[in-house]
Amino acid sequence: MTNAGGYMGLPAGQPADMRVVDMYRRDGDKLAENWIFIDMLHWLNMQGLDVLGRLRAT
């Protein structure tokens, strides 16, 4: 996937992948799908923001 921009204040254009996604699906009048993106640290790192690196630096 590619970030379209604006998400969490990050610029557009950085490609990324999703390593862990939790998905739900129900039928009828219930929820059809609900993708939950779990590995935010990995995704942010692929966008150029190393959260854990910043924590180590402080």
Describe the structure.
The chain contains 2 helices and 2 strands, in the order E-E-H-H. The protein is 24% helix and 14% strand. The longest helix is centred in the C-terminal third of the chain and has 7 residues, at 40-46. A two-stranded antiparallel ribbon has the order 1-2. With 58 residues, it is an alpha+beta fold.
Low-confidence stretches: none
Residues in helices, as a percent range: 10-25%
Radius of gyration: 15 Å
How many beta-strand elements? 2
The largest beta-sheet arranges its strands as 1-2
**Helix count, DSSP H or I runs of 4 or more residues:** 2
Distance between the termini: 32 Å
Structural class: alpha+beta
> Main beta sheet: strand number and arrangement?
2 strands, antiparallel
Kindly report the average pLDDT value.
83
- How would you spell out the order of helices and strands? EEHH
Topology record:
Elements: E1 21-24, E2 34-37, H1 40-46, H2 51-57
Antiparallel strand pairs: 1-2
Key structural traits:
58 residues; alpha+beta; two-stranded antiparallel ribbon; 2 helices; 2 strands
Summary?
The chain is of the alpha+beta class.
